[in-house]
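Hi R.,

Here's the chain you asked about this morning:
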Amino acid sequence: METITFKTATGKAYHLDIDKIHPNILSGGSPGRIKKMAKFVKNPELIEGDRGHTVLHGEYEGIKISAFATGMGPASTAIILPEAIELAEGPVTMLRLGTAGALQPFISIGDLVISSGAVRDEGTTRAAVGPEYPAISNPELIPLMIAASKKHGYDLLKNIWVGITHTKDDLYFAETPQFSPITEFTTPKLESYKRMGVLASSMEFSVYCTMRDFYEGRRDDRILTGEILAILAAQEKEGAIDVSKVDKVKLEKDMITIGLDTLVLVDKLRKGKKIDVDLMDIIKKMIDVPSRRKLSK
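And the predicted structure, written out as tokens:
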């Protein structure tokens, strides 16, 4: 595969500072979240690169996994993901574990959101493809993420939701546009996303989808990518967003275990093994989800 990333004199990825990565991957913006994952895997190996992009290698239920921190925002993510993808051999499953603010009234603090795709409200991916091009999650992962979530007390319409999310390249002015000096432009924009049913707002997933599509044209093996978001805040009409009321420790633990269990399910299916999951029941529940109008009443 022709590569595009920089390498060190020793052949390591220039920013991640590693020369290997397993194809079962969890990632997130926060180095602290990656360090916490070490408690959930066997034989953990933590690597601290010079640029602060923590990497973890380990084993979970018989499969080798890796995890890494992208840093915050699309620009940092667009530097790190190509390095990881170019190092990974074989079919890749890469799940982003992130945090977000809710954009719909029926989504509560402490819920989880699974992204089916992302609004590309950022400038970074436009260096790769025009704004008309969609950012879509791998749909085959969604029922598996729901199945893994059920093991940890999450269920559709109760505390887990599936739908389009929003990717932005600014935090405060984009998510609380009432503070923006150009609020007359930013507020209607965010309101239009809410009216169209966008579930939550975060900062990286559109890059994952764009880089997957770019690299699937350059390598022989598939790349599956998905996202699980923990909701830390509800959308406030006035004032600043308060993220102090959430049990972040529990949410991070739940996201990590759900992500790991999803990787195991995908690995088993790739190897032709049976999984103890009623996928037809999950798909029926997805079909039976009420309209957004009913949910918002």
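DSSP finds nine helices and ten strands in the chain.

Let me know if you need anything else.
M.
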